[in-house]
Amino acid sequence: MNKIYNLIWVLLVLAFAGCDRDKFAELNSNPSTLSEPDLRFSMTEAIEQIYNNDYTIWFYTNFQYLYPWTQVTTVQGGNGADFNLMGPYGAQGLYGSLFPQTMDIRMRIDDMSEEEQAVRQGFKALTYPIQISPALVNTDLTGSMIYSQAGLAPYTNPPLLTPEYDNQSMLFDTWLSELDEALNILEDTDGQLTLGSQDLIYEGDYDKWAKYCNLLKLKIAARLVHKDRSKALQIAEEVANSPVGYMDDINDDFVYNRGINYYGTGNGMWIGYGNQKLIDFLIEVKDPRVRFNFKKNDFNGEVVQAFIDADQALPPFIEPLVKLDDDGNFDGWNAPGEPWVRYHGAPISPDATQDPANDIYFNQAAYNRIAANGTEKTYSSTVLFQEKLTRTQYDYTYPTKPGGRVLELNDNQPPLQVLLGSSAETNLYLAEFKQLGANLPKSAQEYLNRGVELSVKRADLIAKNNQFPYYNNDPVYTDPDESAAAGTYLRDSEVTDLLSQEALDLSTDALEKIYIQQYINFMNTPNDLWATVRRSGVPMKGSSYLEWEEFTSSGTEMPIPRRFTVSTPTADNLNYANQLKSVQDQGFTTGDPNPNILSQERLWFDQDSPEYGEGPK
């Protein structure tokens, strides 16, 4: 047996000895030396990280804080006396994957030969908007952040392990400079390598990326309105006259779609009721976006008839809308008819939540529960925010009478589309800047009209792609005409009709009306929504259009945070000194969720903004 083992050993030695020495060296190269990656795939990974941490952002940041504080929705079940108190929250992840990717891409390009560098400058240019887009989200929450020195440890000797924080003023200046650098490259991309299908957003179209860079410049300019208005107007003029153009077409929109197997968060949300004043305003002006941002209530014709048969009172805000025949049965809807009659909001002040007179909103099980055919059901009379904007992989059961048909929408699981920037947003910013005095080619009314048109059409396209319940029809109605009339899809004349409303006529109250349209447009991009509400003072108290409802508890107005909590630096943190300096320079109390502190200690861009509900300055 030993002779056999010895023979095998000799044969192995001879085999290795006969191997090509160079091949052997390749197989046994230094493990710390990595092969050159295909930068197209690195770019794909970087683009993918523009939108991340979506579950905690939607579950906590958006639905527990941003939507309730901006009066789009309540928290789940209605706002209580502590709805302004912060707890956990989510933010965009920058340092785990995104920054390492973008830095690696730039460094590898810089290490290439001049010829190789020359054809990859487009890749390098894209790394700037890829970084800035989510970083802007984070600075809107907590201000200063590590940016200029982020991700430098692998490329410095000794490794830079204690990067400094950039304050918000420095961040904005840095980002504007980087975006201008990117635009200089993207103005002429002839001969550049392209990403093609590896680009999850624009399929390698550098022209559209350049327009997105201009949108990011406008986002920054909007945040400078109360800190350096002349600079903000200058940026707007640069964008309006940019040689690469600006986002002005539905196909320019920055729509994030991670892939065919990406359906969003996957888990359910704690979603609150729509704000009554907001819903009423949207219905009054017949704004189709109410249908694309909120989910219909349960009171279709069949459910209304079930209440009649059970001799149970309908909710008081639904009963006047119901048309009855001579026998007292359901016979359709009074004006404005389907689908508008299915949208009702709830009061948002904590005092209103505690008022027994409002139990119809906040204790619906006691009012909207009926039993028939051995089955008991509770029906929602108010609207919730449209969950299909956050995730698509869940089933929906349409409301029917107790013991009635089971109608489900269970095959509607398309890849989720997430809007991160739009042509609508661009035009609405330009309307604002024109009204503030910028020298722009078009009138504020022209920019506003274009922005609203694009906003409605984009909201409709997302509703169609994400396959919202009721989009094409309401299957509970057996009559095909009724079913189609109840569909929430965009009708041909609705945009024209909306633009004819006095609430969009800029001959009076122009700035407030522009901010209202920004507010409505940003309902599905909540970070921009909160930035707009803070810097504009809109919705406005006492408004003739969309009114800010005072948040009161026990009759006292409640402070609403204007920034998020910042953790307290600890001495065991390697970067303790820089972290401590950052919060001290901003004048922030750390680790305290007290709403009084969070409402008084503002971010740099927000320091001179109006109070909530105060109206434009």
Net shape: globular
Radius of gyration over C-alpha positions, nearest whole angstrom? 28 Å
Approximately what portion of the residues adopt beta-strand conformation?
5-15%
Catalogue the unreliable spans: 1-34
The counted number of beta strands is 12
Fraction of residues in H or I helices = 40-55%
Classification by helices and strands: mainly alpha
Which whole number gives the mean pLDDT?
Answer: 93
What's the structural domain tally? 2
* Biggest sheet: strand arrangement: 1-10
Number of helices in the DSSP assignment: 24
Short description:
This protein has helices at 2-17, 21-27, 39-48, 54-69, 98-110, 114-118, 121-142, 168-186, 206-223, 229-240, 276-284, 289-293, 301-309, 350-354, 359-362, 364-367, 423-436, 444-465, 480-485, 494-499, 510-521, 526-536, 576-586, 595-600; strands at residues 254-256, 294-295, 322-324, 330-333, 369-372, 375-378, 384-385, 396-397, 408-409, 418-421, 552-553, 556-557. With 617 residues, it is mainly alpha-helical.
Task: Give the topology.
Elements: H1 2-17, H2 21-27, H3 39-48, H4 54-69, H5 98-110, H6 114-118, H7 121-142, H8 168-186, H9 206-223, H10 229-240, E1 254-256, H11 276-284, H12 289-293, E2 294-295, H13 301-309, E3 322-324, E4 330-333, H14 350-354, H15 359-362, H16 364-367, E5 369-372, E6 375-378, E7 384-385, E8 396-397, E9 408-409, E10 418-421, H17 423-436, H18 444-465, H19 480-485, H20 494-499, H21 510-521, H22 526-536, E11 552-553, E12 556-557, H23 576-586, H24 595-600
Antiparallel strand pairs: 1-10, 2-7, 3-4, 5-6, 8-9, 11-12
